[in-house]
Amino acid sequence: MINLTLNGLPVEVEPGTTLLEAATFLGFPIPTLCHMEGLSPYGACRLCVVEIGEGPRAKLVSSCTYRAEQGLKVRTSSARVVRARRMVIELLLASCPQSKTIQDLASAHGVRQQRFRQEHEDCIMCGRCVRMCEEQMMAKAIGFQGRGEHRRIGTPFDKRSEVCRLCGGCISVCPACQLRCTYSDPDKVICGGCANLAPPCLEKPGFDDLMCYMKPCVACEISK
Predict the structure, then answer these.
(1) d(CA 49, CA 20)
(2) SS (H, E, C) 43-85
(3) 123: Cβ–Cβ under 8 A, 6 or more apart, which residues?
(4) The domain that contains 145 carries what CATH number?
């Protein structure tokens, strides 16, 4: 067994366990987007970042791909982690503001503004569809093409794939395909209909970690 500290709690996990699996098993919520149960870890969206280490050497890593290590100290909701996640959500909103999945993530994590130019992309390169087609449908009908800003998803040679069964699996897992009617004005792009209050404990000086992980948070409910 591997011994590590998760949000100040000494825990033991099996070798090969990812930090996301460990936190989820112990009841510490970590948001994900490119990660999906039944598909291999990908680590593309960076929404599941956690903080490991202490002091100036502490760093952010994607919990879905980082495996537990002996003596590792992990914080899943420090102030640094929360800021990083909110920035990721803002960037995702700029790429695909019409996505219901991203809209709901923004509301749930206290993102109240979108400061970047909206692109209205039809793909956020999360890789869900590619992994679904290869790992669950056993087809490999689609895949990534190109690199950098020219990277996209398509079929080999941009021709209709002979192995595609039109099962719809790729569409069913695509967060960009789950559309919601929204404004084109950046100031109104976030619906906020199901918005939650931000944890008040993170606003206190000298307190860098969440006070609790209850849903709803007791402190948040009292502060209403």
Answers:
(1) 9
(2) CCCCCCEEEECCHHHCEEEECCCCECCCCCEEECCEHHHHHHH
(3) 96, 152, 153, 176
(4) 3.30.70.20
DSSP calls for 146-165: SSGGG-EEE-GGGS--TT--
Number of compact structural domains in the chain: 2
Distance CA 3, CA 68 (A): 8
Alpha helices in the chain (DSSP H): 19-26, 79-95, 100-108, 128-131, 169-172, 218-222
Query: In whole angstroms, what is the distance from residue 22 CA to residue 28 CA?
Result: 9
Name the CA radius of gyration of the chain, rounded.
Answer: 19
The parent domain of residue 50 ranges over 1-76
- 34-92 pLDDT, tens digit per residue, is 999 999 999 999 999 999 999 889 999 999 999 999 999 999 999 999 999 999 999 99
Q: pLDDT digit string (tens) for 118-144?
A: 888 889 999 999 999 999 999 999 999
Please indicate, yes or no, whether residues 71 and 8 belong to a single structural domain of this protein.
yes
Q: What is the pTM of this model?
A: 0.79
The residues, any chain, with a CB within 8 Å of residue 186's CB and separated by 6 or more, are 113, 114, 115, 116, 117, 118
Whichever domain contains 69, its CATH number is 3.10.20.740
Cα gap 36→190, rounded to integer Å: 24
